[in-house]
Design goal:
The chain is of the alpha+beta class. It contains 12 helices and 34 strands. Helix content is 24%, strand content 33%. The longest helix is centred in the last third of the chain and has 28 residues. It starts with a strand and ends with a helix.
Amino acid sequence: MAYEGGNLKSSSINGVKMYSVTAQHRPAAWLPPKKLKAQRKNPDYLQRVDLIQDLRFETSTSRIKVTPDGEYVIASGIYPPQVKVYELRELSLKFERHLISEIINFEILDDDYSKLAFLCTDRSVRLHAKYGSHYSVRIPRMGRDIAYDCWSCDIICAASSPDLYRINLEQGRFLSSFCTQSPALNVVSRSKVHGLVASGGEDGAVECFDSRTKSSVGRLDAVAPSGDVDAEVTAIEFDGDGGYLMAVGSSSGKILIYDMRSSNPLRIKDHMYGSPILNINWHKTLNSEQSKLISTDEHVVRIWDPETGEGMTSIEPAAGKINDICVFKKSGLILLAMDSSQIPSYYIPALGPAPKWCSYLENLTEELEEGGQTSIYDDYKFLTKEDLAKLNLTSLIGTNLLRAYMHGYFIDYRLYKKAQSLADPFAYDSYIEKRKQEKMAAELASRITIKRKLPKVNRKLAEELLRKEEEQNEKDADGVDALKEPAPKKSSKKKKGLTTEVLKDPRFNKDMFENKDFEIDEEAPEYLALHPVAPTTTKNQSLLNEHFEPLEEDEQSISGSDASEDDREDTNSKFMKKSQGPR
């Protein structure tokens, strides 16, 4: 169920409210300054809620992360390949940098943005400092993932090879690689509790290494219990409480939760989309004692309980595919990196409070809860069963194209317009004709007209005199327009009837149109003798109805057809008589 109130849009799944804090309408960057200033008059633009100013890329966003101190958000995207750093205190962009090649993934090496490591598509690992690019080094194979071991200052890279490449930043050189039994590696992760490094391979196996012994401490076929033999490991994440639990995401869209002391999974969760799991987060907030698991694939973000497997809520954006997710610690705010220009943000109060730098979100949601909320469906048209029958769309009932709601259905507006154009192809012509009539009526209404009050006595006579005068004036005007010169008035010898001058003449005006004794009686025999073609009054009409029976339509048509046949017979007989005469 979707709602709209104030400046936020909210949705409720399983009774959990989720608010979208992304501005829906954004002006294009190439608009001239005058048109950008004109947006000040647009109410939708003025009432928008931008969580962070300019939180977007030209084409798409590949990765997004928040610094450990929670003061900055770092995002990478295209096109061109670039990275943007946003300062959350100022709610705006701090700086942006452009790179030579696209960024696969990056790691934050310090508490803030001062030290960054970027894994790029040209097999390079680029190190950046506050002042810009510091150094670049290339790895032997194409990199797929990157992790940072803060205890030994090692950058660990997973690539399309069985080796985990290690680069020590303190010594400034490559260290001996961790050799795995997998043909190629997709992902690498490190636990912040015990320091184990886990790698996920294309063969569906997870292998863990201890950086102190520099050897493998265990190998597990993690994807096999889910029933997918050919699935790969695409995501790994350790929990932050005890470090004993490990969540593994497969390429078939399933998450398996393992206890490090057992080879059997504790829980298997299916995303039901069949797309690879991109990211897994163990999220613990002040609202709940138990940690929630936030798993992400290309289509949906699911928030669920790892102990019971019950889903709390989910996020299904329609703007494009999901590439990455950023969850703020001890908060209910989530940012998504997608294949679209915007970076949507979502706030879930049940997941946690709003961060300090955007605490106003709680006030907005409270106001939205207090105000009246109405159910909305963007870009949908509501139709009843009768409307569907008129459009010949009753066969769509029960399909995904119709959403049942109250006494009718919601249908996509584009589909509705297509069906309407097929059912009534001349609707556009009638619409144009209606618009023309409305325009002509508006023009006539805007003209200056002289309103005259008609007298109470002899009202019909006064109305007839005024009508004749208007017709005469229109004829004179048409004659002048045709000749473009004023035509000389010819004195007509014919006797003119009554004119509007009678209304102005005091000799007639006072008695003829004010005294009821001078009112014309249209039923008098003298009046009927002078006006034989006068319309019948109600009294005469009642007499006709009393003495004569009115003809029905069928009788009129029969009598008309008989008369036509008699006429034809008369004409034929006359023609025959003429033809029988001598030549």
